Structure formats: structure tokens, C-alpha cells
Amino acid sequence: MRRKHPLRAALAAALTAATALGFAGTGTGTAAAATPLPAQVFAPYFESWTGQSPAAMSAESGAKHLTMAFIQTAAKGSCTPLWNGSTSMPISPATFGDDIKTLQARGGDAIPSFGGYTADTTGTEIADSCTDVQQIAAAYQKVVTTYDISRLDMDIEVDALDNTAGIDRRNKAIKLVQDWAAANNRKLEISYTLPTTTRGPAANGVALLKNAVQNGARVDVVNLMTFDYYDNAAHDMARDTETAAQGLHDQLARLYPDKSDAQLWSMIGVTEMPGVDDFGPAETFTLANARQVYDWAEAKKINTLSFWALQRDNGSCPGGPAADNCSGIEQQTWDFTRIFAPFTSGSSTPQNDFSVTAAPAAGSVTAGGTATTTVRTAVTAGAAQKVDLKVSGVPAGVTAALSPDSVTAGGSATLTLTTTAATPSGTHRITVTGTGPSGSHTAAYALTVTGGSGGQCTAAPWATGTVYTAGQQVAHRGHTWKAKWWTTGEEPGTTGEWGVWQDLGSC
């Protein structure tokens, strides 16, 4: 999303995960769970650099939930999160703390948003700025615990969308903070706000989501910026929102093949720009468009409805260009908010749900030895439920035992893996599945065995300079791999689930 004020840059002292926040897997931090957001939520953006009170503007407009923009660093290279990159606006109760408490007391909440156009083009988006994954995760944790919120938004666009190193760091940090939240029985959602074409996110946006899946980072909502197409075409902005979201739905279906159609739609959000957007009058979102988008969003049961920004929801500059403080069209103050506000399903009871994680998520053992890990469950919505645990993917020569094999969500079990001399060497992916009345969730554990004598690979070893075609098999690091298409130089095990090599298992 865009903002037009100059960046107030001053380098602040770097945030350290161990001393400032007690992060790095210690399980410290506030354990009390924040109130989850409704299944459907209207959360317009609030421009936090204006000096206005979000609580006061929420009360005046009727928007109970606000997406607060933006958190970034003061300068490239810093790991310290600040509101708007300003050292005068640290992440602390003194900055917006009372406002956010007021929103929560009224039944609403804030969604702090990292990034934004300015940060994404100046290298001050925290995962672009900071190269330490632990400190990035610690920054996320600090925001969560300081304001006791249940969702963080990542607004990633322009330069940041092509920064593959930053994307990978961000998703690794998201996975760390999600594991921390699960260990502390916290509900924590992550949304990604991304630019879009009229047919869904471009290739770099899809690549970002693929990287999240590869890193085990759960993306709860993908929020499309359904404006600023910059294609010099005529636009029906409501219809384009629908086609963009449909394209996203179809892309998510490929990324998450086990999700139902309803679950995929419940991962989608859209953000409009009331009136004239940054491109100009050719991309004007009208009140009639807003009513059409509202009806469509209700029918599809998408997760989030938003617009940029609450300060623009007035008609003080009709006929003018895009501005941060007015819509550029004739309207009454809060017209767009009044159309979208009923979308929030705040009175509904959240469906019971839970999570499953393994800590540690990997271990190494000499054949004949034993490895253990703790399988943790947590309540992520509603009330605790009984969760039955099962293990799959155990290779020959390994015995798996869970104690206990059934817990109440919030409880833990110990997974013991006992190997023998005949266990195949290599890294074996073992899955723990938790099943309850609301459905199933899984956790992965990577067991590396050395010195084993069993299951020798029969396929030829992979060679970096050899050309492989579809169907050919190779052996690499204790696994057999099959090429899905022509390839050379791509190492098996590094191309991901959607890459050229299909893992056929241990050998």
C-alpha cells in the first residue's frame, strides 16, 4: 500500500532476540491468548503517521477492526521495528497501546501491518533490512505481546516482492513465531497483502506463497490489493475484484490441494481504494462498486474486506486526484465504511480447532540409537477437544511409539523413534497426524540416520552435469528421486514440492 509522506529515518539500536524478547525457542513471552478475529472481518487501513487516534476514528466511523499501517525499520540494516520507521514511535504501550486496548474493549481489534510501499522500496521492510531470522521473529513476537493481538499483516510489494532472500527470511521468521505462539497456546494468524493483476497475483506473488509453504509458514489470509493495476485499460473495479480473487483461489488450490473450496475462499481478502486510486480516474472504485463487492464477498464467505484507507472515506475533494485524506468522488463521510462494516461476523462463535507441532522438528541418530521429540498441541479456536495422534512415514528398521497417543488440545506427547542396525541411512520424513472432531492437522519430523546397513539405493547416483528427462530416477542422500520433466544441475531435495524432483522415499 502507498503513503505519500517522507520517510523519517534515524538508525535505532538493533533489537536482539535473546535479551530483548527471550525468543529463540525459549517459549517465553505473554502466554494468555488474544481474542481471535471473526471468521469474516472488515478491517480498513488506518494511516498511523497522521497523529490521529485510531480509537477515536473507529468510534466515529463504525469500523471496529483496523489494519494499522505500517511497521518498518528506521534505516536499511536495522532490526528494530518502529511505527513508520520513526524512533519517536517505538513498539511499546506508549505508542497506540491505549488506542488498541480501547478497540479491543469495544469488541474490535488492530491488525499491525509490516512493510508498505515506502518500506518495500527503501529496504526498510524488516525482513529486507535485517538479515537475522531470529531477530525478525523476535520483532514479530514483540508486536504480538505488546499489543496482545491475534493477526500480523505483511504488506509486500514492488522491490520487496522480488527480494528472494528477504522473502525466505520472512517466511522462516513467520514459522518461528508461529511455533512460539502454538507453544504458548496463542491464536496467531498471518496475512500477506499482495499486489494483483485482474486475474490474480503475478508470478512473484505466487513464488512468495510457495516459499511460505516450503518453509512451513502457515498463511491464513492472502489479501489482494484490488486496485492500481497500471495496465492502461478500462476497468470495472468490482468485476476485476471478483476475477482477481478467482485467480488467487485457483492458485491457492494448487498450493493447498487438501483444502476444500470453502476453505480456500476463507483464506482470501480484498482491499479496495475508495474513489480515485493512484493510477487515476480510469481506476475509480464507486459506491455502487462497493455494494457489488460486499454482496460477492458475503456470497463467497471470504475472510477479509478492507480498503485504503479510513482517512480517505469522505467526499471533501470531489473531482480531484488520488489523495491520502479524501476519495476524489462525491460522497458522504464514512459512506464506504457503512457499506462494508456489516461484513464482520463478530457475533459468531468460532469453530473449535487446534494445531500440532514437533519440537524439535529434526534429529540425528546413529543406527541402533533412539531419538525423541515432543509433539505439542494447542487450541487455535474455540474450545479444547480430544486429539488422537498417529505416526506415518516410518522407514523399515524403525519403531515409533507415542506416549500418550491421545491428548486434549493444549497437551503434549512424546514421540520415541527406536532404530536398528538395519535402518537405512539418510534423512527420513516422519509425519505425526492429530485428528479431532474439527478435522486433522499434521507435524513433520526429519530423522537423519547414519551408519545404517539397510535399504541400499539401487538407482544411479545423481550427477550435477547429467541431463535427466521425465521419469528417470536417481539416488541422492538416501532417497530415490524421479524427474518430472527435463532437468540438469538441479539438486534433488532443493527444488521443493513443486520442483522438478519427486521424492519417492528412503532407499
TrEMBL record:
Signal peptide: 1-24
A single GO BP: polysaccharide catabolic process
Entry keyword annotation includes Oxidoreductase: no
Domain of life, source organism: Bacteria
PROSITE patterns in the cross-refs: GH18_2 (PS51910)
GO cellular component: extracellular region
Database matches in CDD domains: ChiC_BD, GH18_PF-ChiA-like
Enzyme Commission number: 3.2.1.14
InterPro entries noted in UniProt: CBM5/12, CBM_sf_5/12, GH, GH18_Chitinase, Glyco_hydro18_cat
Record-level Gene Ontology MF annotations: carbohydrate binding; chitin binding; endochitinase activity
Catalytic activity: Random endo-hydrolysis of N-acetyl-beta-D-glucosaminide (1->4)-beta-linkages in chitin and chitodextrins
Assigned keywords, A-Z: Carbohydrate metabolism, Chitin degradation, Chitin-binding, Glycosidase, Hydrolase, Polysaccharide degradation, Signal
GH18 domain location: 40-347
Pfam family, one: Glyco_hydro_18
Protein name per Swiss-Prot or TrEMBL: chitinase
Natural source organism: Streptomyces paromomycinus (Streptomyces rimosus subsp. paromomycinus)
